[in-house]
Amino acid sequence: MCCRRPATSRRSKRRRKLRIWSGRSSIGELKPLLADASNSSIVRFAHVYQVFPKPDAGRRSQPGLGSARLGDLPRAWSRALRHISRPVPLGAKIKIAPKPRSVCPIERHRPPLTFHHRQDRARCAGQLAPWARTPPSAACSHGRTASMPTVSILIPACKAEYLGRAILSAQRQTFEDIEILVGDDTPDAALQEVVRTFDDPRIRYFHHGFQNGTRNSQALWEHARGQYVKFLSGDDMLMPTSVQTLVDELRANPEVVLAFHERVIVDETDNVVATPGPLLALGKTALIDRPFLIEHMVAGLNNFVGEPSNIMLVRDRVDISTVWDYRSSVLDFTGDVAAYLNCAEKAPLLAVGGYLSASRRHSAQAPETGNANFSAGLYEWELMVRGEAAAGNLTGDALRNARRALRRLYANWSATLPEIARLLANLDEFERRPAHELYASERFQADLANARAAVAARVGVSSKGPRAPQQKFCVVCEQPVPGWLPHPENGNPGKTFMRQIESVGSTLQNHSCPKCGCNDRERHLWLYVAFSRILEDASAKRILHVAPEAGLEPRIRRLQPREYIVGDLSPRLAHHCEINVEKLDFPDGYFDLIICNHVLEHVDNPAAALAEFNRCLAPGGHLVAQTPYSPVLRNTFELTKPVDEAFATNYFGQNDHVRMFGADLVDHFRNAGFKGDLYPHTTVLGELDPDTYGCNGREPFFFFAKGAAPGFPAYASSQPIQ
């Protein structure tokens, strides 16, 4: 028997309802939802949903994982499991036999179309119209067109492995006035055969092929006809009473836009591996307003509502084109959290107690197995924290708690995700800046753009699959090479500090070209300069090149600049000038481009050098100034006295370096009047493989301007200059 509550009047339901508003003592009744506790019981979930059963499909638990009885789960879950019938044989067609019902007079008299069973699927001239629905032509006594279902269950999917179980769980709903829309996001319509296995006229299939979950969901929404929309991920499953429960509560609360229930977590074989702490007791409901969401969801970095498979929406009160966005920003990972905040602006969310869905966790979702946009699931929380703080909705202890939570979250991933290390180093802004400036912070927006570019690059690479090995090529001497020579210090165990701070500079493994002797920094610089096309009109430019690289100087001279001045503090060639970057002997606004590669780490006063560069650049001129730095050092590390060579080697990376720049590096340039940023390798060079060209893919392009900031990728060309 299914777990249905006894029928009650609408008035009595409202008397029982627990209304949650920020500042009210009743908020305490929702505290269990904030816990991360999980049930360690391992049980088989809903055998009947296994359209393609595993060899051990008939077992209640896996060896070595322990066992549990159905009674170990919440009571409602156990009852629902007992209600489900036996597994479906492999390859069998699945046909739902609908219950007989009385037919509305309008449905009975619509020649030449008649209804097939109780569904809205049409027969014409004795044949079932393929993949079509009866067009609405009249309204029944309930005020809806005869072909319009009450609920549209939308299943956006991209993998076939679990889709059959998701569809079957939608079919087995006790609320039968539904349509089931499946959106196939694969490029080759790979899911069509899975959907055709089901002989159910309520199911409609759409091939989209966007390979983008949000766009797939939006396209399905446009096809939906129901008054309510229930999302169901192609990996997840619904309990039989999920739709019935949410429809009943939305009808009892017409002001609500979004209702949700709770879920358990299952693995690849439908074992329940976690049961989050209960939000509410079975049958209890609560209204949750936006301030409560901000304090407990945003500040706590805790999506206690869960995945979209848990929610139901009122279709005509939601703008699907923007509901997944936050402050006009399109999100890559946490669009569900943004949707909950957006819906709560219209009305409180309605929470319903009971575990009525199952969210699947499998290996393909793990970041270490290549989840390309995983990083977005980290930094988008900071975006929302800063946004709510700037709006005055997150203050005091709640804001401080959010900062601590972000620091803990970032610390777990900063070693493997460079863009997260950069954001981690900038969290001190929460203490230094007023709350209303946190969202618009120039440094945060630059770090955010960097992180988004890194995610976009990973998504682009993963969508194309593995690439064949490429011939290594030196862009300085323009010759193919068999490989790169390592630096003598490669593998030196004494570089412990440099590894701890994740310093970005030379790659010691792919260091020197075996033919021309150039190092990785020279090759990377030339790629950046060439692809940014700042030398495309070299004949019209005055260029200052400080400490020019032996392989790059002739390449630039070959472009015949209007004027090309090269030099160093200690000139190595007769035609080189003596140049002190802290006191340049050139007129104001004289140069159009200054190249200063790996010099600032040697200079006693980098602020004076940057000020001189700004003075000598013409309006709109550019500065390229690569230098080693650490994205995890909050501030630049330097001493107020000279250090010996051993100290400099251990802590600054080289015996003649006088500092290690930290995550505040960009601030040094901006304080000197420049605009620009550290642009990631993928932003400037796209999919150019660092190993193929012998450079450090972690080293960004230090590109600044005296005027408007350079822009990528529009600024960069897909082909370098020759």
From TrEMBL:
Keywords: Methyltransferase, Transferase. This is Methyltransferase domain-containing protein. InterPro entries: Glyco_trans_2-like, Nucleotide-diphossugar_trans, SAM-dependent_MTases_sf. Residues 152-274 form the Glycosyltransferase 2-like domain. One of its GO terms (molecular function) is hexosyltransferase activity. One of its GO terms (biological process) is methylation. SUPFAM superfamilies: Nucleotide-diphospho-sugar transferases, S-adenosyl-L-methionine-dependent methyltransferases.
